[in-house]
Specification:
globular; 37% helix; 12% strand; three-stranded antiparallel sheet; 5 helices; alpha+beta; single chain
């Protein structure tokens, strides 16, 4: 197998009891399996399937596609990011957030107290959209 296959097997061994996932090296197979954004894959690709979040009897699972080259250290950061909430309020003390510590991209939603609820809703939607 390839390096990517090895990374996938290590990931499967370490996280197989926690996550369901898919790994594809062939675009046609990924498309036929109904994997999200399979048409845009250019090489080996990994998806995490969030089936435990779906209602019982659901035929589909929310999918999070890993969008970087498959390198073990990056896949591990990706897995850690899955456990993070979709957004956080920035701490007043300006200490780095978990997102910054993991080197993840950030989106800032700035608000005042008059529309804080709307800003939190927007932050949650953005956070889920970028997973």
């Amino acid at each position: 197998g390839t390096y990517e296959h090895r990374v996938f097997m290590e990931f499967a061994f370490a996280y197989g009891s926690t996550y369901k996932f898919a790994f594809a090296t062939d675009k046609r197979v990924a498309e036929e399996a109904g994997l999200r954004d399979a048409k845009t894959m250019t090489g080996p690709t990994l998806w995490v399937l969030h089936c435990s979040e779906e209602e019982k009897g659901s035929k589909t699972c929310r999918q999070t596609r890993f969008r970087q080259p498959i390198v073990l250290s990056d896949v591990l950061i990706f897995v850690k990011s899955l456990k993070l909430p979709s957004f956080v309020d920035l701490p007043v003390n300006q200490e780095p957030t978990q997102y910054e510590t993991l080197g993840l991209h950030l989106i800032y939603v700035v608000t005042d107290n008059s529309n804080a609820h709307e800003a939190r809703d927007m932050a949650g939607k953005l956070g889920r959209a970028f997973r």
